Amino acid sequence: MIESLNKTILVEIDIPIRRDTCINVEPGIWGHRINWDGVVVPGSDGLTGYYEDEASAIVKVGSCYVDSVAYTKCLTWESLRLQDEGFLFDPATQTIYFHFDDFGPPMQRLLRLGATTGFCDKAMLDDSGRPVGSMYEDIYYEPRILSVPSIGVSKDPLFFG
Question: What CA–CA distance (Å, rounded) separates 131 from 82?
C-alpha cells in the first residue's frame, strides 16, 4: 500500500520597499536601518525617547534594486567590500548595507529592497483545529494560495533534435 504524501506548497515573493536615506558606515559602504523597534534614545534632560517604527521587522531581504540595476546579494562583509553593486542585510540589527558602483554615494538614487514574504496553500492547525499559518526558516507563510497549476514537461519541436 502506498501512502499519499501530504505536500505543502511554499512560495516566496520579494515585495518592494522603497528607501532613500543612507548613512556612510565605512569607505564605500552605506547603511540604512529598516526597523527602529526597541532602540532607546536617552535625552540630556533625563527623559527617554523612542524611534517610531519605520517598517515592520524583516526576516530576509532577497533582492535589491538601485535605480534599475539589480544588486548582488553578499553574505559576508568581506564579499561586500569587494563587490561593486552589492548589498548585505543584517537581520539582527535590521540594517541593510550597500556598496555602490565605484564607491559612489547614494545621492539621487532610488533604492528598492525586496522584503521576502511567504505564502502557502494550507495552514498548520493548532490543538483545537484552528489555522495558525506556517513558519519555515523564521519566515511566516500566510495560507493564501488557493491552487497551483500543474507544470507539464514537453519539448518544443522547433528545438528538438
Answer: 46
